[in-house]
């Protein structure tokens, strides 16, 4: 752990996951009320976001993909500004220019949310090259899914990062689904992590629905990247609990699969652990949930009260 | 003045900029092998060979540019840009705007194109208009060694992604380059020859074809002005309009195919903003809607030639309503 940042407690991890879940639920509620922009939620993948991002230092940088709300919130993003961006308001992180799919937040070290699947993988070596040549201890974390791992750019990215000794922590959230297609239809084998060996890169597979396990694995992986200035691939085995995008549709998914994975819900698992150990009471848990919901209510109020960008600014900022 | 080729001028520009700014670096397929003097001068951190993988080269440049470096990448031949379109168009071109201005992408993508080397369609495809059409990018396509140097220096210092096209036929043709600092701002066309009756508008190697045509036209008593666009985006509309308002006639010449090409844009500009000054329709002489052939006679037939320009300009000046296409 970074000397300036104490390791998060189990309660911290739970609180962060509850905030992400509450944010996504707020998005879903807006959607059901409609009209609302299409969004891709990360419900079910909270442990990966919180576990990995908690292992990072302030000067580390992040590239991510269209299911980025968890990563951004875990990094400390203001949910009001996130929601404002999704709603196209001028108070959003990108002044309403991005929408939900491409949010970046320089102040948090979040370079990119790419909705071109694999776009984050193509930029990651360059961000890490800057870290290598311009100095500093920071590393670069690149979140992508099993879908992106089936693209050529995944292999190009890992190969170059390895050949050039770039400090990239590749984090594959293997959430079983690639848009509307189960990974079993599109990839050989179940796991991405073994592919790293072809590029001379160490890897680790972790239960991505166990926040503590992810934190531990990510801490080890990040420490190795920090020490060696070499890339590392961490695969988190997790599940996308909602459809590819809102409105929610899982009619094409085997109900037994859904039930199996709902039984491994990352938030419920940590809650049970904390209740069993006595670190958390039922009342305490309810209070945490209420806090998360209240924070998202406030965020929603901020976002809906925020102005839209002025149409006169349509072409501002295309060029430097 | 010293005599050098466009290749040498580019290398000199990159070397000078690397001396000036430690954030400038160059990588690509064979960059460290073929530009060994750069490698020797600046070392393997800043001059790098890459895998033959254009997507990751361009993406790495975009990521590096967003976070403090100023990369120049060599993607060799323009058709290979198809492998790098996502990184150049969707990332480098769009992410400044999409991030609300949080990140800039000061990077240069260097690539070769054009007929003359009989390399055929998978190494020769004049794609410049694709990138002109993409927001957030700038596009440069010079015609003289001095401009290769001056525009490369401007491109490296620009805060935006710049596509830098080298017309292959110009690569090893020597030309005079001024001593000392040579800097050509992006977005400024050059008037290569002054004239009063017809304006020949072009870029890259067909500028020289236009100049040859202007010589012939002068011998025939027709005064032609020749404009070298140099930068296709931003386009120097003022120079184009001022010239055609003076001459009243325009022939736009380029090797890229006609449909939605740069010539279409120039022609539309003239119809929108200089209609009253036009004494005749604007004519475009371009390459055909066909892949670039390899066989030398076919390649020459593909490329606008001086006699076609002379014929078009003569007919315009004579106010002939019919101007035959060159193919």
TrEMBL record, chain A:
Stretches of the chain forming a coiled coil according to its record: none
InterPro entries per record: DH_E1, PDH_E1_Alpha_Subunit, THDP-binding
All residue ranges annotated as the Dehydrogenase E1 component domain in the record: 17-311
Required co-factors: thiamine diphosphate
UniProt-listed SUPFAM superfamilies: Thiamin diphosphate-binding fold (THDP-binding)
UniProt entry keywords in alphabetical sequence: Oxidoreductase, Thiamine pyrophosphate
Protein name, per record: Acetoin:2,6-dichlorophenolindophenol oxidoreductase subunit alpha
Organism for this UniProt entry: Geothrix oryzae
TrEMBL record, chain B:
Domain Transketolase-like pyrimidine-binding: 4-173
Pfam families: Transket_pyr, Transketolase_C
Keywords: Oxidoreductase, Thiamine pyrophosphate
Cofactor names: thiamine diphosphate
InterPro entries cross-referenced by the UniProt entry: THDP-binding, Transketo_C/PFOR_II, Transketolase-like_Pyr-bd, Transketolase_C
Entry annotated with the keyword Chloroplast: no
Official protein name in the record: TPP-dependent acetoin dehydrogenase complex, E1 protein subunit beta
Biological classification of the source: Bacteria, Pseudomonadati, Acidobacteriota, Holophagae, Holophagales
